[in-house]
Specification:
359 residues; alpha+beta; OB fold (Dihydrolipoamide Acetyltransferase, E2P); 2 domains; 6-stranded mixed beta sheet; globular
Length: 359
């Protein structure tokens, strides 16, 4: 008999004033895995988290922890009995309690009876020397570490994290995220993380649940969502895009880069051909306008530079194509600042291109 997921959500729906803000949402999170509810503000991700935690109630659907139903149409187990921990962006440490007392708050016997467990967790996040400090003596990053181990101290089966790193200085985030991920994996906790930041989801999640208008529009490993997006909006959530619009004729769509195969799309339909800026390659046109380069598995369009900016790690170069005057953007590692008007060839690999019906 297979082991049930640590957390499973089935057909979850929540309505406000007749509108479904969470609409038939289903997913599962195994032990030791991180699932990320990702999406823009108002898409329903935080409401989903609150329902799973038990601080809000669904209109339909079922939630199980280790195969045990904690909420369905007729059952509502209180939040404190669900073996689910909560961690929010404001950390919410108790100012009158020491770090040790904060961490031990949810443990029977308090800090004295659980000194070993408290010290062990604090050591894991390099906070052992602060065990007797108070919250006002801590930095934002240190408070975040204490909030994390406080949530993990009772050994919850599932940990809910709502934008947990949004209040941190950007320089601290990557290190603290990595520390957090290592600790969560070691504890075997299933994690449901809510964020609106694609970089955070890509860095932490074993699976991403991308939400839009209350529904999960695509779910899977970060690699799959990035490299096989379900539609243009999914692709655009993870990076900037260049979009070429065209109309299908004889299973082909014409662009400044030549013809693209669009099999199975009815003649006359409009499609969008999508390429990420980092997948556009650049070659100087030293001979006026030809001959065009012939990259392997690719094709080229002639264009002129309209603007170039250096962004630190890379340069952003904007172009307009000679044919159809389409604005395109390419990113180039390092410093690359050709003056406006410079003629160039833009090349792309067709296996890095996405074709979607026009939205």
């Amino acid at each position: 008999m297979s082991t049930p997921p640590r957390l499973e959500v089935q057909n979850l729906t929540r309505r406000f004033a007749g509108r479904a803000v969470v609409d038939d949402v289903s997913f599962a999170v195994p032990a030791g895995q991180v699932a990320c509810l990702l999406g823009p503000s108002g898409c329903g991700k935080s409401t989903t988290l609150r329902i799973v935690a038990g601080v809000d109630t669904q209109d339909e659907g079922r939630i199980t922890v280790d195969g045990r139903t904690v909420s369905d149409d007729g059952l509502r187990i209180p939040p404190e009995q669900r073996a689910i921990g909560l961690m929010f962006q404001d950390f919410a440490l108790f100012p009158h309690l020491s770090v040790a007392e904060n961490v031990a708050f949810g443990l029977k016997g308090g800090a004295g009876a659980n000194r070993r467990r408290v010290a062990e967790l604090l050591d894991r996040v390099q906070m052992g020397s602060h065990i007797d400090s108070y919250p006002h003596e801590l930095s934002g990053g240190e408070s975040q570490r204490v909030a994390l181990v406080r949530a993990l101290a009772p050994r919850p089966r599932v940990l809910m994290m709502d934008e947990p790193f949004s209040g941190l200085d950007e320089r601290l985030r990557d290190g603290i995220r990595d520390e957090t991920l290592a600790l969560l994996k070691d504890e075997g906790t299933a994690v449901l993380l809510v964020t609106h930041e694609p970089h955070e989801a890509m860095r932490m999640a074993d699976q991403i649940l991308l939400m839009r208008d209350g529904r999960i529009v695509q779910q899977g490993a970060p690699y799959n969502l990035y490299n096989a997006p379900a539609d243009r909006k999914v692709a655009g959530f993870f990076s900037d895009l260049n979009v070429l619009s065209g109309r299908v004729k004889g299973a082909l769509t014409h662009t400044p880069f030549g013809e693209f195969l669009t099999p199975g799309v009815p003649d006359g339909s409009e499609v969008e051909i999508v390429i990420r800026p980092q997948h556009l390659k650049i070659d100087f046109d030293r001979n006026g306008q030809g001959p065009a380069p012939t990259p392997e598995n690719g094709t080229a369009a002639h264009a002129r530079v309209t603007r170039a900016r250096y962004l630190g790690r890379e340069s952003l170069v904007e172009f307009v194509t000679d044919e159809d005057a389409i604005a395109l953007t390419a990113t180039v590692p390092g410093v690359f600042l050709p003056p406006p008007g410079t003629p160039m060839w833009l090349m792309l690999r067709r296996d890095r291109v996405f074709v979607f019906p026009k939205l």
